[in-house]
Hints:
mainly alpha, 0% strand, globular, Yip1 domain-containing protein
Amino acid sequence: MGMGGIFVLSILSILILGIIFIALIIAGIFLYFGCKLANIEDVSLGKAIVAVVGGGILSFIVSSIFSAVPVIGGILSFVFGILSYVWVIKVIFNTNWSKAFLAWLMAIVVEVVVMFIIAFIIAFIFGVGILSLMHL
């Protein structure tokens, strides 16, 4: 591989890391709002980002372990993956299980609402209406 290939790989690596960093900040913002809606005290964006990273890693590990269980592994990995993520929120924000679960759920709800708003804005900008989608 020549110098041009190494340069391109370096630029792509930097872009990918930048995208991951931006995605973590955005996910942290959603969790931040979820915590605020759940009335969790002492909430900060930094804690929310740490909870997103820690919750994501722990949830991945726990889900991977439980997915190996025959027959009911999918259900177990789903349930324990969520529980491990909520546990991380509970620990980082020093709150109880119900507020941590509510924060996790509100973060998802806020994220879905924002995605729909963005989708409608994009559809409006490009002139894609609901009726034209029905003819697909």
